[in-house]
Amino acid sequence: MSGTIMITGCNRGIGLELTAQFAKDGWRVFACCRDLKKADELNALQAKYPLIEPIQLDVTDYEQMIALGKALKGEPIDILLNNAGYYGPKGTGFGKVDREEWRRVLESNTIAPYMMAETFCDNVAASDYKLIAMMSSKVGSIADNRSGGGYIYRSSKTALNQIVKSLSIDLHDRGITVMALHPGWVKTAMGGPGALISTAQSVAALKKLLTQAGQGKSGRFYNYDGSEIPW
Ligand code: NDP
C-alpha cells in the first residue's frame, strides 16, 4: 500500500530512516523537522525522492503547529507518526532529577504528541487508512519496570501510553486507530552505539506493523517485531 504519512523528527535517527523507507515505497512523506537548515541528510533524501516534503516544525512550538494545521486543512493524512522524542539528561536516578529538564522532556514526549493528534486528527479522519502512531518506549511500560530509576524519560512515555489509550477511545467513532510503538533498542544518538539493532532493521519491521494496522490494534502497545507489550 501507499498513501500519505506525516512523521516528526525526520532529520536523523529513526525518523530519517522512516522517511527514506516510506519514500522508497512510493509514499508521500510530510517530513517534519525542527530546523530544515541543519537537515542536510533529509534534504539530500528529498533530492532523490521528490515525494518527500520537508516541513519545518518544532513539535513544542504550538503556534507553528497550529499554523501548519491550517496550511494542511483538508489534506488527507493516512498515517500520523509522532516520532520526535527527547531523552533528557542521563543518570537522573533517585535524588538526582532536574525538574526543569523533566518539564522539557514531558513537553516533547507527552504534550507535543497529544497536540499533534489534536491538530491533525481531521486530516487523519479524511484519509483512507486513518492511523495515529506514537513512538513510545518499552521503558514506559509499568509492567516491564524491574530496574527502577529513569524517572524523567520513563514517566514521559508512560503518560504518552495513557494518551494513546484515551485517544483510541475518543477517536474510535471516527474510524481512527491509535497505537503505541516500541522501535527496539536502536543504534541512534539516543540509543547509543551499544544498541541491538540498526535503524534499517527497526524501520523495516515498524513499516510492516504500520501498514497492517486496523481498529483491532487500536489502544494497544506493540514492539517493533509485532508482539504486544503489556502497559
Ligand atoms: P534521536 O535522538 O536520534 O532523534 C530524535 C529526533 O527527535 C531528532 O530528529 C530530533 O530533532 C527530534 N526532536 C526532539 N525534540 C524535538 C522537537 N521539540 N521538535 C522537533 N523535533 C524534535 O532519537 P531516535 O531516533 O532514537 O528516537 C526516535 C523516537 O524513538 C523517540 O521518540 C525515542 O524516544 C523513541 N525510542 C528510541 C529508542 C532507541 O533505542 N533509539 C528506544 C525506544 C524509543 P533535533 O535533531 O532537532 O534535536
TrEMBL record:
Domain of life according to the entry: Bacteria
CDD domains given in the database record: carb_red_sniffer_like_SDR_c
Pfam families listed in its UniProt record: adh_short
Signal peptide: none
SUPFAM superfamilies per record: NAD(P)-binding Rossmann-fold domains (SSF51735)
Protein name: SDR family oxidoreductase
UniProt source species: Microbulbifer variabilis
